[in-house]
Design goal:
The chain is mainly α and 204 residues long. 61% of the residues lie in helices and 0% in strands.
């Protein structure tokens, strides 16, 4: 459902929904795998003149990216999210909701995805409750041309059912890790963005 694809940054006049979809896509890419040199170069060259808390969090991420390189970020990613044996930080919703991997929350997620006609691609090794896959589903629910799927009610339902109860805990776990630098900045941006999403959904 997700892949480490290059992200295209859109201009501001292409609308808030495009910006939301792009940010979900970027989060999916960066949480799925360490950034390539090409993606890192795109981040480094990104504008940092955004306003508000989201703009400030974006600026922090870009500044951290400017002081790193792809190899350093690969090592940080592997230390935090892969490691030897159990990862130091889990990226799976089932772990935060039940304390274990591959539990009932994942089964419920798979049922909902099947009802939407979505399934994990054969090339994807991570389970569907990985944060990258969930962000990719949200990107799809915003950007898809399928009007029956891409609407705010489906976005609110999916986010509320499969992300809202645990996603901020994940962000805090990453930010609080002593060895997280780039990914602490990414978690900071993610937390602000998810909080904005929650507030917007609450007003629907």
């Amino acid at each position: 459902m997700t892949s480490a694809h290059a992200i295209k940054f859109e201009t501001q006049d292409q609308g808030e929904e495009t910006a939301r979809a792009d940010l979900y896509g970027l989060l999916a890419t960066l949480f799925y795998a360490p950034p390539s040199s090409a993606l890192l170069a795109t981040l480094v060259s990104a504008q940092t003149n955004g306003e508000g808390v989201l703009g400030a969090a974006w600026t922090v991420l870009v500044e951290v990216a400017r002081s790193a390189n792809a190899e350093v970020l690969r090592e940080e990613y592997e230390q935090l999210f892969i490691g030897v044996g159990k990862p130091e930080v889990m990226l799976y919703g089932s772990y935060y909701l039940s304390g274990f991997l591959m539990e009932k929350p994942l089964a419920a997620l798979r049922t909902d995805l099947a009802q939407m006609g979505l399934q994990r691609a054969d090339a994807i090794t991570e389970s569907e409750d990985h944060i990258a896959s969930l962000c990719e589903v949200m990107r799809y629910l915003i950007a898809s041309d399928d009007v029956l799927q891409a609407n705010v009610l489906n976005q609110k339902k999916f986010f509320g059912t499969h992300m809202q109860a645990w996603i901020l805990n994940l962000c805090d776990a990453i930010s609080g890790h002593p060895n997280a630098k780039f990914y602490a900045a990414l978690a900071g941006l993610s937390k602000v963005f998810f909080e904005v999403e929650m507030q917007a959904f609450d007003m629907e």
